[in-house]
Amino acid sequence: MSESTSIRPRRRTGPRLAAARDALQHQREWFATLRGQTEQGRPLALVNADAPQELFRAMDVPYVVNQWWSSIISAKRMSGRYLKALRERGLPDDVEQYSALPLAEALSPRGDDAPWGGLPTPSLVLAECTGDSMRRMFQLWESELGVPFWPLESAAAETVAVNWWELMRHDWETAIGSARIDLLQDELKALIPRIEELAGARFDEERLAQVMALSNEQAEWNRRTRDLLAAAPRCPVPVDDIIPAVMIPQWHRGTSWATAAAKSVYDEVSSLVGEGRAVVPEERHRLMWIGRGLWFDMDFYRSFEQSHGAVFVWSMYLALAADAYARYGDDPLRALAARFCAFRDQMYTPPWSVEWYVKEAKTHRVDGVVHLISPDSRSSWFTTHALRQAGIPVLEIRADNADGRSLDPRAMHDQVARWIESLPDQSQGC
User: Would you say the pTM of this structure is higher than 0.90?
Assistant: First the structure.
């Protein structure tokens, strides 16, 4: 099944959230400027989503988030073509596709139809090595393309604070453990001279403190938006608008624009809630999407509104932006280390992740969960089990979110539709 024939395009209905439209426009303009600057010799970093991008921000080194670029490739429905190029070079095309797509594009012949003109060759790649495949993948940037790779280790903890979302903003030392924070802080100290070489400037701790302050403020606006949506009688905003409206500013954390954008999301959502706006006026089913965004078919999330009165009220993107980023403290470098050294735990490591998903499902009053399980998932069973133990129905779908070859959208649509029809009707509202 080819990617181009397997995807069934759908037409978007209704106006786009202004904050989402503005963020998308900003990102296009920013990337066009970035391409021009790199063509003039300005350095560029490619950084994984779970790595501390704020250091580059504080040093004025532009960066592209690896998984964001994967989402662009997937949205353009070019993932199959690039992944095929990996296979043709004797490399696996079915391992960590979400992280591998930018590498796959870089190793492919550059065509005129490359997404957004194509990703410029970075000057440095940075990733936390959460497994052997991730380390080997990023080493290919260096061995095949000559791009230096800076690895960060992935540490674990023997004890876990299950209510981490209540501790992370101020009591992160307790929530994470000093040893893990020490490790990443030391690694960041070692990374700083390398970034200084790229920037041609010295690291300024005060500048990093400003970046952290702005990103903390951004997280507080995201927290308010998340709580507002959770409490709203009916969902006022489609999730495929919330994702870009929140996540594009996330990739610009530490800037005044990103903080203002997060506030604009809250202001707009607050206005819609005040007006009594509802994506589905006759809301019968409130759904939760656990997993990465289905980038090659974002319209999927709105497929069941008219036919089933079903609306997705939750994705991890706003929820993580609300709970996972804010870190307050007098030492900005240590606070930054605390922001990222347990980042994947919050999404994927039980009991960190499962307690959080159950909490979010309950506060958002969901009637069911669609759980997208990628091939690289290591803890999906625990998530599904915890939700079902809490009395919340779960439908598991096994596919890679960025690889359009990994599922048949029509079959997936029919599967989800049948499952929704099995849920109790909540047409009386909340």
Answer: yes
